[in-house]
Design goal:
The complex is a heterodimer of chains A (133) and B (387). Chain A is mainly beta and 133 residues long. Chain A has two domains: 5-60, no CATH class; 63-131, OB fold (Dihydrolipoamide Acetyltransferase, E2P), CATH 2.40.50. Chain A has helices at 5-8, 16-24; strands at 28-33, 39-40, 55-60, 63-72, 85-92, 97-103, 116-121, 128-131. Chain B is globular. The model of chain B has no long low-confidence stretch (mean pLDDT 97). Chain B has a domain at 5-115 and 210-226: Peroxisomal Thiolase, Chain A, domain 1 (3-Layer(aba) Sandwich). The relative contact order of chain B is 0.20. Chain B has helices at 21-36, 61-68, 85-98, 118-126, 141-156, 160-174, 188-193, 221-226, 259-272, 289-298, 307-312, 329-332, 337-352; strands at residues 5-11, 45-49, 76-79, 104-111, 196-199, 201-202, 212-219, 235-244, 281-283, 366-373, 378-386. At the A-B interface, β4, β5 and β6 of A face α4, α5 and β5 of B. β4 (63-72) of chain A pairs antiparallel with β5 of chain B.
Chain lengths: 133, 387
């Protein structure tokens, strides 16, 4: 006997405000699915892998590797005084992906794909990462 | 589904315009109505494709446009799916007419952004990303495609010069398009020397911010009969596909392909009962040079990682095996967001009727359009044929 979807639904535990507050405290928050184990930094009600509503708020590693990036010389308003900087897609050590920006990157040789980075702090909405060994 | 015809399609010039969105939409709609030889009173319903009218302090464009056409009682609503708003509106009109709800509809796509300075426009465009996790984290719209380009270069060895080839071709094509935003012949060297916007993408890898509008009148066979119009030598929609993807680019496993485009392409080809070799030319969503290459790979015109060779070998130029973006594409024809997908249909209409002048694809009878929203959160693909 399968449960109805209605019964499976639990309220989403993570709000955008909480995610942003976490970032300011140096914590990267997201979800882990209690059913299939998927880890994801997102705002979700159902798991995009198994479609169960069993997502639990989880704190993830603050270190990872750069999967790809761009170096921005023209930026949205909040970042216009920061150019040039890298905006990167980062895979955290425990699995989920996140995006962040890395200051003082002006040419591709400054940031090889696969570079290890660590979450440092935030003074704009986004997360600032820095290169680490 | 009933057959759906493109009775007419026309556009304003794309570029910087002193006119507002409502005026641009009215100009394109009027041209399409006149080209079709119908009265505005024949229109039963309208979809307006638009993303940023709020930047002009005007929402609810539908009734504004219909009032301007003198038919305020005709229902009209806005369809927004970022840069794919045009294809989405065409698709919804096709569904409405195909299902027998309406016999004659207007689809008008419009955008007006040139009143915004570059930083403000860049900010508006970043609203098409998953803003909490991308735009607000420092990604501009070119930045998202810059990350895509670096992934394609890392995985397949694509070079910046190969990306530049796309810009050179599309600028060349736009020289014969009087409605194009940019009329400027460029070389690979010009692209390589242009200022970096979001590396590896440079200014000449990017489409411009454009104003403009494009409109199409779609109708059923019953409508043609009621107006004593012939149903031969008409452009028909043979296949329509639409699909979605995560709003956020960073959540995807593969950044070198837009899955929404793969799915929408498959749906359109299946519905049309056609394969890639049946297509005489394609108008694809080249918001950045790399996007044209990925479109060719996603639609099955080139194997993964090999699309750059099509451009290099001249296969995608007018007169080549598969001309891509004979209009100049978003890159040079321009990219007034909501108008872009409808503008692609204008190119199809002109080409299939043999009215494309210096950029005419000889003997073109079947064409494909590919219109992407943001980084692939949505995509619409249509296949057209003149009967």
């Amino acid at each position: 006997m399968t449960e109805t979807t209605q019964k499976e639904v639990v309220p989403s535990e993570l709000t955008i405000k909480e995610f942003e507050a976490g970032v300011h405290e140096g914590k990267i928050l997201g979800y882990q699915c209690a059913n299939c184990g998927l880890k994801r930094i997102d705002i979700l009600e159902f798991c995009p892998n198994c479609h169960k509503a069993e997502l639990r708020k989880t704190q993830f590693s603050d270190k990872g590797i750069v999967l790809t990036y761009t170096i921005q010389f023209v930026a949205p308003e909040q970042y216009m005084n920061e150019v040039p900087y890298a905006w990167a897609i980062i895979q955290l050590d425990d699995g989920p992906k996140v995006t962040g920006w890395i200051p003082f990157i002006s040419k591709p040789s400054d940031l090889p794909v696969g570079q290890r980075v660590a979450f440092k702090r935030s003074y704009l909405p986004g997360m600032v990462f820095e290169k680490v060994q | 589904m009933r057959d759906v015809y493109i009775l007419s399609a026309d556009m304003t010039k794309f570029g910087k315009s002193p006119l507002s969105a409502r005026e641009l939409a009215l100009e394109a709609s009027t041209k399409a109505i006149q080209e079709a030889g119908i009265s505005p009173a024949d229109i039963q319903a309208t979809f307006v494709a638009n993303a940023f009218s709020i930047a002009e302090k005007q929402g609810h464009l539908g009734p504004i446009v219909m009032s301007g056409l003198g038919v305020p009682d005709v229902p009209a609503s806005t369809i927004e799916s970022a840069c794919a708003s045009g294809a989405s509106a065409i698709r919804e009109a096709w569904i409405n007419i195909g299902a027998g709800i309406y016999d004659c509809m207007l689809v008008v796509g419009v955008e007006k952004v040139s009143q915004l300075d570059t930083i403000t426009a860049t900010t508006y465009f970043s609203f098409g990303s998953d803003f909490v996790f991308e735009g607000a984290c420092g990604a501009s719209f070119p930045g998202l495609y810059g990350a895509i380009a670096r992934s394609h270069m890392t995985k397949y060895g694509t070079t910046e010069e190969q990306l530049a080839n796309v810009a050179v071709k599309n600028h060349e094509n736009a020289l014969s398009n009087p409605n194009a935003h940019l009329h400027k012949k460029i070389s690979v060297g010009d692209v390589m020397k242009s200022p970096v916007v979001a590396s590896p993408l440079k200014l000449f890898d990017a489409c411009p911010f454009s104003d403009g509008a494009a409109a199409a009148i779609l109708c059923s066979e019953d409508f043609l009969k009621s107006k004593s119009l012939k149903s031969t030598e008409r452009v028909m929609i043979k296949g329509s596909g639409r699909a979605g993807g995560t709003g956020a680019l960073f959540q995807r496993d593969d950044l070198t392909s837009l899955n929404a485009a793969v799915l929408a392409g498959r749906e359109a080809f299946k519905m049309a009962g056609m394969s890639q070799k049946d297509i005489d030319f394609a108008e694809v969503h080249d918001c950045f040079t790399v996007a044209e290459l990925i479109a060719e790979e996603d639609l099955g015109f080139a194997p993964r990682g090999k699309a750059a060779q099509l451009t290099q070998e001249g296969q995608t130029k007018i007169g080549g095996e598969l001309p891509v973006n004979p209009s100049g594409g978003l890159k040079a024809k321009g990219h007034p967001v909501g108008a872009t997908g409808v503008g692609q249909v204008v190119e199809v209409y002109e080409q299939l009727h043999g009215k494309a002048g210096g950029r005419q694809v000889i003997d073109a009878r079947t064409a494909l359009t590919h219109n992407v929203g943001a980084t692939g959160g949505s995509c619409g693909v249509h296949i057209f044929q003149i009967n």
